[in-house]
Structures are given as structure tokens and as C-alpha cells.
């Protein structure tokens, strides 16, 4: 691949990929609304507000693929999400269509299905049950991706990301954790695949407790290899027992499902 | 029911219900951005732009239920949909939550699943495959409805409406037509039901050719009774043979699936 | 059929069949622990405690089929159910095996699945979710029937009966009502069928609101024809609005699901 | 439709359609290896051995559609089936491809699934379980039809025909009977449909006892209207009780499933 | 966990857990109708007849969890099962409810589904097909567990145990064997889980030949690690060829499915 | 096993098994229409044209099992397939029935389902979608196998073989490759199983990219262990990028799906 664009490159996930994808494409074009530091070798750094359509169309020029992480990644006021996630993601897809980009990795989220109980095993056919306005924006993004594939042949793999950090931070993440290494190999698997159409999958390492099933996406050939088990003792020492009547324990979305309406 | 709000009351569907629901609630509150004429007996007429949140919160006050038809109901520029459908529908749900409204009928659309082929029989578990940006806004609306039920106990029946006109207008509508009479009885069935949670169903009369299955919503007890068959001879005389290689014939969304990107 | 045994013949359902099955078999053998009055023409009346195995083995002699309605049909103390429903039903099956009876209609109950929500459409594959100890005895009876078919070739149709009365008595029964006429035609269809194996089906008339699906049992050819709709106006006048947060409204089992532990 | 070819026109089904489709196409081209009498108005009569490829290619010229009934329709020696059904059906499809025929109705048979039990409800996704070599030829025909659609865009509706006679002839046919009138309306529905791809459905009237489900083909809009019930009393008088241990009663294929290897 | 009760502690499974769960809870309370020897450190030994309700209510006091292995674990006379399994298990659940016990591991059995063929892969949704009266008592126990969770919030994991012995004893056990080590880790996984609701799973090690699928219970995070393969050579040497027409080979329940009615 | 017959023994697969199954049966009887060289120790070599029924009946005498690889294994003219695959396979099954052979491994092919897209995960219930006339002959063979099991108790495992060569030869084979070692262990697992009925499974090694799922056949206990990954670098160096609009890339059947009608 010649040029791969990463939006949201200044964020947590963006930093992981900026480092992890070095050498994967000839050039990594990095974009964010925040500061990303200097461009390193084989990097292009482009500050860009994704809600500015003209700027996004420029940004996407000459790119072969896009890893779309940009936008707000926590619960937020609807009006902020309207700009960053609804409009921003539309602009990215429209720019991809106009520039002939072949494939996008869309950073969807487990919060698109966060109101399912922990005792359920979900696959890509699970009913959408967002646990937050943020989760609603991810349902929207997946629908938009489906549309751009069906009508304009822009392929997407929508990855419902669990919790991608160097280490799991609480008991829930023992189930939802995806290691940075597994995330990096996922991105490579997605862009290496011969064809993907629009595929929905879950971004999670093979932890001991499993809520999500990626069998339907086995054609992609992703083989994650890490597990949260190494961190269990520490986490369990740090956090008291979970209360099975707490919505944050009952529902897959955890705290997102438990909290009330976002107040600015 | 004491007061039922109808948004989009000046539109095609709104007019059908304004007439058809006379006497169903003590008061029909009618709202639109366009002119709705004078209020009749047991009517309240409130001009309102759904993208104005404060206005919508006022509009919803004292209502027991909402038939949310408002917004753009054809393919349109994304920026227009952003205001009318994304923001407008959010405002309606947020107003419902703040005002304690129990149940909403959300006018979703067959265009949320319009990229399925005509040869498929869909039910509520069918994969979302929107055929237009308009269809994407309906996917979003259903996700929002799911969220407001799961978290705030606001019930919704999302009705993927086929084609609701006095008569079917073309060959495709022989399959997608819902008679105004069946639409009216559907609204009554929805608000008469003891509980609905968030239910997705299809708004279509029992025509001869069937693409959609409502068995899962049989608890609602809707018994539509009309059929497009009475209009078949006329329609077939008026319209030439369908070309089975035309996307408008292949896909359930018809012309919406066949047309390209919306250009203002 | 020469001789058809009805257990529980003095009960509500038993009386309906005693009258309705006149002439269907050469002889109706009627059994109950309570008084059943005099034997009419082509009737045999045998008082019998179903928990007395030897008596039951005698009772079943020379019968070609059994309609097993006997036992306790409301929530009760476990110790009473142990005798009447657990032991009683075993005795009936064991007597059937020893006497070579070919087929049994087992009066199961919707309370075997009463903790499913009203918004679900159930078929024979629905998870068992009993709403009462009574419901648990029906789950047991279905399992026993399965066993006697698989191992001893005694066929059973287990009918999860809704509410079989001359008229529906409350709002819930608008959905669960089976008319006596439909019940009678169901029994005939069951014993007329060439083979049944062990089949689970729902005993309900084609009412407007539908919770249960019998498609899998379409081979039996039962065509029920009544509807609770004729009684709706009266029922709705008599009963106030249903509260959708009341367990008796949320769950299919109604009051059985809502009540607590049975206290003698 | 200008010219519709019927193969096997001298057989039972062929005669029903020769009469019933008068006026449906401008010209009915009738073909058989047996004598078909004189051509009537708007008829062309062509004697043809379907195992003669060149002859079949000629036969199909200028046809818009084909109703392929030709071949052996009972159990037979494999070597005879090899010519009549394997080779014959291939020749018809190859001729259709070469002549640009758009759609074929392939007379498949319930004997393609005849080893399913009567107590099962089958749809188009049911496992193939042929009950005879004849049934195996129908599985083959459906596979060939799938291939010609996927690769060459020749559409087929494969109809697993039950028992199409003026009246049901035995107890099994009370379930499998398709009235000639319903068969005729089925053929019209198939050729009237805008698109069909390769669709598998069951050819049966809405009898009381139902083994087969056509919901997935509801897009075709076939509305059969007859029932075997009118003939039940006569049939039941004529035929003794069915033995539920007889393979001819256990399996949907009836006598085909019960008989052993065909001996010439 | 402070105090974990094990019923049936004198049996084969009970002994495995008495040893294997040392140190898992502060105190193991051990109960059986048979002699269990002296209490070791951190053990309480309580002789108890599970059919004595008052005794069971006492037994359960101050326990946080229950591993319910007690009762008859082979085919037996119904009257014995009535006391030990039907009444005994009810008493345990009722005692759990009255004492506020949070979670129970119920020792269900593969004999609840033993009349499925070996060639089928079952999960928790498989139809119940008990192969014995013993198996029927396990179906009952699962239904009771479902009821106590839905109504009284007592959680259960019902484990359909295969064959838990130090080594597999015959050819069938090459598929059904669960090692003691895997059984112990299963119990820990069940009581460590944050929530379980009522979950049905299979107790079997990852042997080469697999009949049962636990994917739906992946949230529990059980990772069994043993295999019967180490014992294959010995077993195959010891046991002659299996006859595929023998019910003990055809059905998953093995000898239970093959034997006739239990005669005392 | 005393005597195992391998048809098609001179072909690629036959050679692998001739070598790999040495010692598995007392005698390997090898058959082909082509030269197979001299019989080695414990081998019988029988030249035989499978379209000659009498010869095949002789060939099968005294065999306990058959590995049926014989026939044409590439796309070919229908008339050639008619003899080699349709007639040849029938002769093998009929000979097995007449000689009381218990089990057959039928070499089906991925080309029986080759018109499914690469992005789908198929199991044995996947719709048949042959990609070639060759693929159609495999659909036929599976149907014939089903028939011979249901009626004559001749068991078959139909293996839809991917690509069995010492090494994968192109990019597609990175997904479809089955190593010779895994093929050999599959054959042993099939003939070692206590019962198989008619089972359909996929012959493929556990490669990184997965299109096929054998969970339903887990009872057979096959544990393949190789992967194409070792060959990836070489293959990717040798072959240019795949074009996702090329039918050979879109469809699982690869080149078979992409090529047109076979012209002799």
C-alpha cells in the first residue's frame, strides 16, 4: 500500500497505530484536530477538522486506504457528536468516494451493542443496542459504511473495538481488552485481505471471558494472540467485588450503560 | 389517550392521520414547519422547526404519545438531513424523555433496508442495508429509539413504511403499498398495545407479492386488510415491462437504490 | 377410536370435552378424583386418584388414547404438586406403556413459558421459562412425554393451553383465549393425525394479538376459527388500563409470573 | 410473453397446462417424446427426444420461457434416468443458454426431500433427502438450475411438486395435493414475476395438513386457493387406517420412501 | 467466598470437589445422606436427608453458594427419584431462596439430552430429550432453576455433566469424559463469574470427538485443558468394535438410552 | 479394517492415500482407469472403468470401506461427466449396496458451493451453489449418498475437498489448502468413527484465512494440524495483487467460478 490515512492520529488508538504501522505503507498520512508533533520519516502530518468537508476531501487525496479513528470517542453532548461524528464521518466517506479510496477501517465500538447482557455471546448479526449517544453515532457509522459499499463500492471493515490500552484498567476490561499488538495485526489483516465488502467484527483479544464471536469474519485471517489473563491478579486485587445488580456489571457497555443522560 | 402529537402533520402521511385519527385521542396536536391551516375541533396546531430544541421541548409538553413523521422524507443533501433528520429526531426523543412521554411511533422507512433484493423475505432481524442517505437517517433513528427505550424507558415502534398513498403509483408499489386505512389502524394498534418496548415492523398492506414479514410483531395485533391487487390492471397497463437487470427492479428500495449520489 | 380416556374429567376443561367429544370415540372413559355425576350413554365413569399407580394402571386398560387433564391446574404447594402432577403424570405414562396406549394429549400450559415477555413470539423451540411451580410441573410433563416417545413409542402432543373458557375474563385473555370449540377440534385433530411423535404446540384461538406460533405443528391440520375480538369491548370497559411496568403485563404468564412464592 | 415452451406436454402435468395456459402466451410450443395430437390454435407441436441435444437446441429457439416437465416422473432404472433426466435436463438448460431464454420453471419434486418425516415443516432451506433415484435426479436438476443462474443468468423457479391431479387419490395426497387450478396460477405467477433468480418452492394447495412452507417465495405472489378437504370423507372411507410404523406413512415421500431398490 | 455448601459430598463427584476446592472458600460445608468421615480443616460435615425440608433449610444457612450434587445419579425407580431428586432439589432451591443464597451449581446431566444422536452437535438450545427417568429429573431441575432465577433472583449454572472419573472407562467416555481437574476449574469459574443468570452448559473436557458446544457460555471463561486422547489406546484395546446399530452407540446417552424400563 | 478400496488411485489424491494409508487396512485395493504400477505389499491393483457396472460390482467385492476419488476432477464436457461422474458414482454406490459395504468417503468438492462469496463462512447447511458442471456432479454425488444412507444404510462422509497438494499453488489456495498429512488423518478419522450417517464436511487445513466451518462434524474427531502460512511469503511474491472485482477472487470457487461454458 502506498499511502494510508489515519484520522484521529493524536488519540490513544492513533498513537498505537502510528507506531505500529511504521513500514506497513510507504507513507502514513496522519490527521487530527489536535497537535501530532513533527512528521517522522515516511509520515505526512495534516491538521484537519473533520467537520470541514473541503478540508477532508483534500486530506483524503492520493490515499489508498483510511483508518478512520477520528471524532469523539466518549459520551458527549449531542450537538458535539453531530459535528464530530455524524458530519465528520460523512465527510470521510464522501471524500473516499470522490477520491476513489478502496477500503476504510471504521472504528466502531462495543457501545453500539452495549445494552446486551454480559451473559450473551454476540456476533455481527446481534441486534444493535447502543448504550449511549456515542454508541448511536457508531450505529450510524456502520449504516453509512454499508451504504457506501452497496452503492459506491467503497469497502469497510467496521470494528467494534473493546478496550485498547497497554493494560486492562478494571474488571470489565478483562473481557473487553484488545492489546495494542493485536490491534495492529488487525489493521494489517484488514488491509491485506483480497476483498471485504462491508464486514462488522469485534476488536478484542482472546481473553478468558468471551462476549463476542468473530467466526463470520474468519475469511480475514486475523489471529490475535494476547490475553488479559496476565493482568487478572492485579486487577482483582485493585477492584472490589462486582455487584451483579449494577447496570455497569449487567450490561456489556459497562459504565456507558449505567450512566444517565449526558449533561454538558 | 388525552393528547397525541403528530410531527410532520402537513405532509402526505400527516394529512392521512390528521383525518384518520379524529376522535382517537382527546386532542391531536399537529406540528410542522409548513402551514397546516386552521386547527379543527379537538386539534392544536403548532408550527415548529424540529431542529430548534427548545421549541420541540415546548411542543411535546403534555403529550401522551408522539407520531414522529417530521423531517425530510426523500433523498436529500447530507447537510439538510443533518438538521432535519439527525438533529430533529434527537430533539423529539430528548423532549419525550424530559416530558415523560411513554411511547413514540417513529416513521422509519423501507429505505433502511432497501439494498436487499426483492427475492428476499425480511423481518425485523434483517441486516440494515440503507439505499440512500435518507435511509441512513432512518437506521440512525431506529438506533436512537433503541437507546431511549433501553436507558430511559421511552417505548417506540419503528415502522419501516412502504408506500402510503391512496393508490399505488407504479409496479413496485404493488408490493410496497400500504393503504391509508391500514396505516391508520396501525397507529391505533401501536398506541393501544399494553407494552411495546422497542419494536421494528414493516408498514405494508397484505398485497399479493410480499417482501416483509411482521410475525415477530404479532403481539401488537395489527390486522391490515387492503391489497394493491385492485390496482394491478391499471398499473400494468400504464407501465412497461420491468427490466430485471435494473437496480430499481433488483433491490427493494427501487429508485432510491438505483440513483447515484445526491447532488444539490 | 374405540375408547378414549379423559383424566381430570370433572374440571373445567374436562367438562368441555365430555360434552364436545360425544360421538368422537365409541366410549369416553371419564376419570377424576372429584364427583363426575352419572355416566351418560357411551360413557364410563371411573373415580380414580392419579397418585395411586395400581388404580391408574387399571383405569387405562383397554383405552386407545388418553387426554390427560388430571392434576392440579393452578399454583399450589410443592408437596401437593408432587403427588398430583409429578407422580400422577408418571402413573398415567407408565400405565399407557404397560397397556400399549398409542397416543396421549398432555395438557401442558403456557405457564411452562410464562416468563417470556409479551413482546416475544414463541414457537415450540422457545426456551422453557416456567413462571410458577405449576409451570415447572408442566416442563416436567413434557420431558416425560419426550422420554416415553423416544424409548417406548408412546406418542404425545403436549398442548401449552392458553385460557380455555366460554369467554375471555380479562385483558390478558384477549391474547391467550382458546374457545371451547377450538379446543374440541384440537383434540380431534390430534387423535386423527396419522403420526405425531412428541409434538409441542400452543392451545390458543386465532385472536388478534398473537404470542405463539404453531407453524411447526401444521402437519396436524388444526384449523381453529374463533377469536376473542367479539369480547374486546366488554373486557376493555370492565378493566382499567394495563400498567406496562406490572409483571403481570410484562410477562406472558400474567398473574402467575407476578405472584411470589406460594404459601399454603 | 410471446412463446412459451412446455416439455413433457403429453404427460399428466403437461395436459393440465396445455389447457390451462391457453391465451397466457401468444404461442404455446408443446414438446414430448410421445404423441400430443394435433396442434390447436396458437399452438406448435414438436416431437422431440430430450436426450438429443441438437434437437433440443432447435426446439428451444425463439422461446421466451420454458416449463420443463419432460423426463421420467416415477422411480426407474438408473440407466433410463441417466438419459431422460440427467442428460435431458442438461440439454434443456444448455439450449436455454444458447438461445437466450430468460426463465425456466423446473418441475422438481417432493421426492427430492422425501426422507424427511411428516412431522417436519420444510422450507427451501431444508436438507436435501431424496427418497428414490428419481428424487436424486431432481436434486441434480435444482443444482444445475442454480449453476445456470449464477453463471449464465438463466433464471429458474424449481417447484417441488406435491401431487397434481384432479383429485387426491389417497390419504397422503390430502397433504400433498395441488389442484390443477393452483398449478396453473403458479406457472403464471412464476412467469409474471419481475425477477426470480433461482428460487426453490413447493407446489401444493393450502390443504389442512401442511408439510411445506413457501414464505421465502412470497415475493412471487402466488395465492393458491384450493384444498383437499372437500375430498377427505371419500378418501378416508376408501382407505383403511394408516400405520404409523409404515415408512410410507412416516416419510413425506410416501411409497417412494418405502419401496426398495428399483429392479427393471 | 465464605462458605460453600456441597451436597452429595460422599459421592464420586463430591469427593473430587472436597479435595479440589480446598482453600477456594473459607469453609466447605459438606453434606450427604451417607457417611463422609471426619471434618478436615475448614470443613463442616452435616449429615442430611435432602427430602427433609426443615433439615435442608438448616443446612443451607449462612452459605454463599451451593454445589448441588445430591440425589440419585443413576437410573432408578420413579418413587425413589421422587424423593431424592424431585423433592430433594426443590428443598435445596427453597432453602436457597429463604436463606438468600446467590448462586447454585446444579449437577444436571447429559442424560437430559441423551436421545440425540452422536452425530449431532448440541448447545444449550438443543431440544430436551431425556434418555431415562433419571434424565427426566435433570430436565425438571433445570426448569426449577430457571424459575428460581426469573422469580427470586437465585442464579444457577446447570452443568450437563458428561462422565467425570479419573479416567474414561469405555469407548463412549472418550467423547464424554471430563477430567477431575477440569471439573474443579469449572466450579471455580462458575462461582468467580460476576453474573450468570440461569446458564446451561456441558461439563466435558476438550476431547478429540466433540458432541457438545459451550460457546454460549464463553462469558464464564472456563478453559478446560485435558483430553481423553491419552487413554484411547488402552480403551480401544480393552473394548471391541462398536456396533453402529446398537442404541448405546447411536445415542449420546449410551447405555442409558439403550436400556428398557427400570425394574426394581 | 480388512480391505479398503480406493478408486481413482492413480490420481493426485489417490497417490497421497496409497502412500499415507499403508498399514491402515490389512489390504488396500487400488483402482483406476489409468495405470497404477505394480501392487506393493498389502496392495491389490485392479484396473477398472467405473462406468462399467459389472466391473465395479466385482471391484467392490470383499471391501469393508471405499474411498471414492474416481471420476473426472476438473471441469469437462457434460457427456464425459455423464459417464465418469454420474454413472461412475452410481455404480460405486450400487456395488456398495449389493456387497454390503458399510461406509464410503465420497470426494465431493468445494466447487459444489463455489458460487458463494469469499466473505461468507459456510458450514454443511450452506446452500448448494455449484460453480461448474463438475461442481454439479458433486452436488449429485452428495444427494446420491444421502439416498443410499436413508434407504440402504450405506454410510458416507462427503468431503468437500479444498486444494490438496504438497504446497499451495496460488493465493486462493492459502485459504483452501489441505495438506496431504491432514487429508490422510481425515480418512482415518472417517473410517475410525463409530457411526457417521451421511455427513458433509470440508477438507481443509486450519489455515489463517477460513471460509468453511466443520463444527457440525466435530463428533468425527478430526484434528488437522497444518497451515498454509509457511508458504505465504513465496506465494505472495510469485503472484501479483488480487483484483477484488475478478470473479475468481470474489467467489470461493476461484477460476472455476470465473470461467465460462466448457467448450470441448
Automatic annotation (TrEMBL), chains A, B, C, D, E, F:
GO molecular function term, any single one: oxidoreductase activity
Annotated TM spans: none
Swiss-Prot/TrEMBL keywords: NAD, Oxidoreductase, Plasmid
Any matching Pfam family: Epimerase
Record has NAD as a keyword: yes
Family: Belongs to the NAD(P)-dependent epimerase/dehydratase family.
Name of protein: NAD-dependent dehydratase
Organism: Thalassospira marina
Biological classification of the source: Bacteria, Pseudomonadati, Pseudomonadota, Alphaproteobacteria, Rhodospirillales
